[in-house]
Amino acid sequence: MTIVPTWKLRARFAAALSSMYAQEVPAYGDLVEVSASVNRDVLARQGDSAEQLGSIERVTAERHGAIRVGTPAGAGAGSANLRRARDVPGRLL
Q: What domain range includes position 31?
């Protein structure tokens, strides 16, 4: 049996949500692509100093992994369900 670290399961989950959302809202996918392009350009210009808050991959993933769920009125239940789903990988180990 292969054991997958919790952080990797969460990263896969976030990537899958992001991909799904980009299919439903193409502008989101465009935003992620533009952000990645800008981050690569900054890294090319500034070198290692561009990564003082973390690697470009990590910063890009974290900034664009957050997806709004539902409407403001339904955010309470939607957020609770998303939190439970997000926490599942931690319970598997």
A: 1-65
Is residue 44 classed as helix, strand or coil in its secondary structure? Answer: helix
Instruction: Answer whether residue 82 is part of any domain.
Output: no
Please give the tally of structural domains in the chain: 1
Give the number of residues written for the chain: 93
- Matching residue, tokens 């990645």: 36
29-86 tens-digit pLDDT = 898 888 889 888 988 999 888 888 788 877 777 555 455 555 555 555 556 666 666 6
| Residue pair 22/28 in contact by the 8 Å Cβ criterion | yes
Torsion of CA 79, 80, 85, 90, to 10 degrees: 120
- 78 lies in some domain: no
pTM exceeds 0.85: no
Closest CA to 14 of 62, 70, 60: 62
Q: Is residue 87 part of a domain?
A: no
